[in-house]
Write a structure and sequence with these properties.
The complex is a heterodimer of chains A (748) and B (158). Chain A is of the alpha+beta class and 748 residues long. Chain A folds into 3 domains: 176 residues, Aldehyde Oxidoreductase, domain 4, CATH 3.30.365.10; 163 residues, Aldehyde Oxidoreductase, domain 3, CATH 3.90.1170; 300 residues, Aldehyde Oxidoreductase, domain 4 (2-Layer Sandwich), CATH 3.30.365. Chain A is built from 21 helices and 28 strands. In chain A, strands 4-6-2-13-10-11-12 form a 7-stranded mixed sheet, with helices on both faces. In chain A, strands 8-16-15-14-9-28 form a 6-stranded mixed sheet. A 4-stranded mixed sheet of chain A has the order 1-21-22-23. The longest helix of chain A is centred in the C-terminal third of the chain and has 28 residues. Chain A is globular. Helix content of chain B is 34%, strand content 16%. In chain B, strands 2-1-5-3-4 form a 5-stranded mixed sheet, sandwiched between helices. In chain B, helix 2 crosses helix 5. Classes of the chains: A alpha+beta (748), B alpha+beta (158). Chains A and B meet through helix 1 and helix 19 of A and helix 2, helix 3, helix 4 and helix 5 of B. Chain A: Keywords: Molybdenum, Oxidoreductase. Chain A: This is Xanthine dehydrogenase family protein molybdopterin-binding subunit.
């Protein structure tokens, strides 16, 4: 068998914009999300949560709750074991406090009852005696040696002495001689920045339906970005074998990284085990804010030296991230990403993870990168202003390119940064005039992207249509792009292919939908699975024709003789081959299982125009343009959607969104009224410009696009506001009070 | 507390249900009538995912009690398509890729339909302000606004 491989591939299906396969279900309200299913005899589960930021649990008395008619089970941490694995223990302790509550909203007990009203009444009957402990929610405060200690005994050996025990890990990246580099600079700027914790803000709260039978077999339906991960974690927590727990991923109402772990799923399973009934749990929005999500809160120092003509001579950053009450590695990603857009001779980043009395951080779209790059791009912008240089020209002058030794170690392959910069420079937005109180900001952004473990089965149905089964929840239209890649490779129409996401028993392990990996890795596995099926179909036809497998070729959905020498045979279509498959050796399927490498890093640059009202401090975004390298945009609509959606989230982060903690350590704004995400009237059109610099690691050149788009908005907005005001902004969000304070402090 | 018996019209069909006095219309629709196309995003009227119409008026069903809708005509996403023919707004949302995760989509479609009934030719700004009560976290609203504009144009032509 031969594949006809062309030099410059002319795509037929990839790059078009067909309707998504789940579209109709979603516009008629029939798509089933986490909270949309029920089971016979189902109970409702609710969780009792800590009202304190930090307290010892002296005792829990559940007897009155258990006695309430309709209550079928009450559980506490005593109903779980204590996992030996520290990461698993953290996940479990986050789901149900053991000994101590570590943040406002930490779960302490759960109830399953015959109705929501009974469950809520039962929660009020649970008596918890707390002994309050001093708390700390601010990252810089938590690092001080005399800070209240959130959890003891977690300090990694990399941490130098002199900090609080809250500082759990330290990391360092970079290369070159910083001192020599700074000596060459004409101007050095050093500044400190802070960013508030934000929440992913998915519209669908976490929800699940768990059912465990007396024989120990269990089913779990839940909204998640990774049902294999849910299976692994829940089965370990519940002490089950993975094969006995079947997890089905529902349609998912947004995740953005926040649904890559478990919160209520082990609790629902434990309640089901104890009650012997199916248990449905749905979080309230208040619970979502208090006990799931948020990003790290950060405090960062950046120092950059630049020559008069705009060459960066040395750069360093100190990053202090807090991912709440449990250790997290996000600062390492920030420290690696901080200077990724630059080709630098001397660069160093240092990062510290810090515990605070906040909920455990969950990933949020390019976790750790937006905060680091915000600080770096703010200082670069200030240097450009002081030296009278064009910020885009300076980025071009220092841009990382193919062959650049990146600031975090690897040497870059084909990357699209220069292409996005050139596209931005040529775009009319960059040269459009600005009015009074208006400013234009620019920022580059970067994300690593990920490949990972992936399984795909591609069945050739007996009518010649194609069923693709994969294991990655679709959070942004990926079923459409997977179907497109299958159709492209097979040479069949898109409409002949249907892609479904299997449950954990129907296909092998697939890593979480994260790292912008699905279109890349599942796409790659789908293409290879299609090739596997093609090989089998070629083999069947060669057998029928009585010629060598090498003498046939697959082209546009047909097996054909490879050349006139192979013989005179009428090409056989996929339909014909499928129709007689039972006579030629049985059903035909292609498979591919891979730990995909070569994801290909992603770059994007954003331009933002704002107008700031100097009287009120309110900022209006006037115009916004996103330039991003997609490698190859399989379904351009959904690539644009990722670019626009990430930009909108970043705009919210820059201007409004923040976790606000009171003196008592309690979250003061756990609702969409006070935690204000951008609404339609807050935003202008967000213009997406797709660049396509093929990723050599993917057969079609695809690279992930989902995360990079949230990275540049923070600095793009901050630089725009700073230029509009003539005052350098150094903290996010730039809510009106923050802007008024900065203006009055500067005496402008 | 005593349960309440309610008779109403839902998506054009007569419906009866019994609910508790504190039960919201959202809970009734989802849990008692199986209309799970109506979504709960916040339960406090801030996100619009539970948007329905009551006697033609756009409301958040989480802010209405089930006991309040005696005799009312209620419209939900499940009643928007005409049998298997999608409403132009629904088709336009698919054609414009105006949904990603899709969980806000039912509420936004119901809200957009209510807008176009009042104002068949809204400007972009009017669409943005009308939909300001419906949160979407995935799209940045761009393609949603475009989809509403396209559907409005098509409906005016029809």
């Amino acid at each position: 068998m031969n594949m006809r491989v062309k030099g410059e591939r002319a795509f037929k299906v990839v790059g078009t914009r067909p309707p998504r396969p789940d579209g109709v279900d979603k516009v008629i309200g029939r798509a089933l999300y986490g909270a949309d299913v029920s089971a016979p005899g189902m109970l409702t589960g609710h969780i009792l949560r800590s009202p304190h930021a930090h307290a010892e649990i002296v005792s829990i008395d559940t007897s009155a709750a258990e006695a309430l008619p309709g209550v079928k089970a009450v559980i506490t941490s005593g109903d779980f074991g204590v996992p030996e694995d520290s990461a698993l223990r953290d996940v479990q302790d986050h789901c149900m406090a053991r000994g101590k509550v570590l943040y406002d909203g930490h779960a302490v007990a759960a109830v399953a009852a015959t109705s929501p009203a009974v469950a809520k009444a039962a929660l009020k009957l649970i008596k918890v005696e707390y002994r309050k402990l001093p708390h700390v929610t601010d990252v810089d405060e938590a690092m001080k040696p005399d800070a209240p200690v959130v959890q003891s005994g977690l300090v990694h050996e990399t941490v130098a002495p002199g900090f609080s025990e809250n500082v759990t890990s330290y990391c360092e990246f970079g290369h070159g001689d910083l001192e020599a580099g700074f000596a060459k600079a004409d101007r050095i700027i050093e500044r400190s920045f802070t960013t508030a914790a934000t929440h992913q803000g998915y519209i669908e709260p976490h929800a699940c339906l768990a059912s465990m039978n007396a024989d120990g077999k269990a089913d779990l339906w839940c909204c998640t970005q990774g049902h294999y991960h849910v299976r692994a974690v829940c089965s370990a927590i519940l002490g089950m074998e993975a094969s006995q727990l079947k997890v089905t991923a529902s349609e998912i109402g947004g995740g953005f990284g926040g649904k890559t772990t478990v919160f209520i799923e082990p609790v629902a399973l434990a309640l089901s085990r104890k009650s012997g009934r199916p248990v449905k749990m749905v979080m309230s929005r208040d619970e979502v804010f208090r006990a799931t999500g948020p990003t790290v809160a950060t405090s960062t120092d950046v120092k950059i030296g630049m020559t008069k003509d705009g060459r960066i001579t040395a750069a360093e950053a100190r990053l202090r991230y807090s991912g709440g009450a449990f250790p997290c590695g996000t600062v390492e990603m920030g420290a690696q990403a901080a200077f990724a857009p630059y080709d630098l001779d001397a660069v160093r980043t240092y990062g510290w993870n810090v515990l605070t009395n906040r909920p455990k951080e969950a990933s949020y779209r390019a976790p750790g990168a937006p905060q680091a790059i915000y600080a770096v791009e703010s200082v670069v912008d200030e240097l450009c202003l002081e030296l009278g240089l064009d910020p885009l020209d300076v980025r071009v002058k220092n841009a990382a390119q193919k062959g650049t030794l990146s600031s975090y170690g690897p040497t870059f392959d084909d990357i699209g940064l220069m292409a996005t910069l050139e596209a931005a420079k040529a775009h009319p937005h960059w040269s459009a005039p600005l009015g009074p109180n208006q400013g234009r900001g620019f920022s580059a952004g970067f994300w690593f992207n990920f490949g990972g473990n992936t399984c795909v089965t591609l069945n050739i149905n007996t009518d010649g249509t194609v069923s693709v089964t994969e294991g990655n929840p679709d959070i942004g239209g990926s079923r459409a792009s997977i179907s497109q890649m299958a159709a492209e490779e097979l040479g069949v129409p898109y409409e002949k292919v249907r892609t479904v996401i299997g449950d954990t028993t129907s296909i092998g392990h697939s890593d979480i939908t994260d790292g912008s990996r699905v279109t890349f890795a599942v796409g790659l596995a789908t293409i290879k699975a299609a090739r596997d099926a093609i090989q089998k179909m070629c083999s069947r036809v060669a057998q029928i024709w009585g010629i060598d497998e090498e003498a046939v070729v697959w082209e546009d959905g047909y097996v054909k003789p490879a050349s006139p020498n192979a013989g005179d045979f009428k090409p056989m279509s996929i339909e014909e081959i499928a129709a007689i498959s039972f006579q030629t050796g049985g059903p035909i399927a292609g498979h591919h299982e891979v730990n995909a490498e070569g994801a290909g890093v992603s770059f994007g640059v954003h331009i933002a125009d704002v107008e700031v009202d100097p009287e009120t401090g309110a900022t209006k975004v006037l115009r916004y343009t996103v330039f991003q390298d997609a490698g190859k945009a399989v379904h351009p609509d959904y690539v644009e959607g990722q670019m626009q959606g990430g930009a909108a989230q970043g705009i919210g982060w820059a201007l409004n969104e923040e976790y606000i903690y009171g003196e008592d350590g309690r979250l003061q704004n756990p609702g969409f009224l006070d935690y204000r995400v951008p609404v339609a009237s807050d935003l202008p059109r967000i213009e997406p410009v797709i660049l396509e610099i093929p990723n050599p690691g993917h057969p079609y050149g695809v690279r992930g696009v989902g995360e990079t788009s949230i990275v540049p908005p923070l600095a793009a907005l901050s630089n725009a506001v700073s230029r509009a005001l003539g005052v350098r902004m150094t903290r996010l969000p730039m809510s009106p009070p923050t802007i008024l304070k900065a203006v009055s402090a500067a005496g402008v | 507390m005593k349960s309440i018996h309610v008779a109403a019209t839902i998506n054009g069909d007569p419906a009866e249900f019994v609910c508790e006095p504190q039960e919201t219309l959202l809970d009734v629709l989802r849990n008692r009538l199986g209309l799970t196309g109506v979504k709960e995003g916040c339960g406090t009227g801030d996100c619009g995912a539970c948007s329905v119409t009551v006697n033609g008026r756009l409301v958040c069903s989480c802010l209405v009690l089930g006991g309040e809708v005696q005799g009312a005509e209620i419209g939900t996403i499940e009643g928007m398509a005409d049998a298997d023919r999608l409403h132009p707004l629904q088709q336009s949302f698919i054609d414009n890729a105006a949904l990603q995760c899709g969980v806000c989509t039912p509420g936004i479609l119901v809200a957009a339909e209510a807008l176009l009934k009042k104002n068949p030719d809204p400007t972009e700004t009017e669409i943005r302000y009308w939909l300001a009560g419906n949160l979407c976290r995935c799209t940045g609203y761009d393609k949603i606004v475009q989809a509403v504009q396209d559907a409005a144009q098509q409906m005016r032509g029809a």
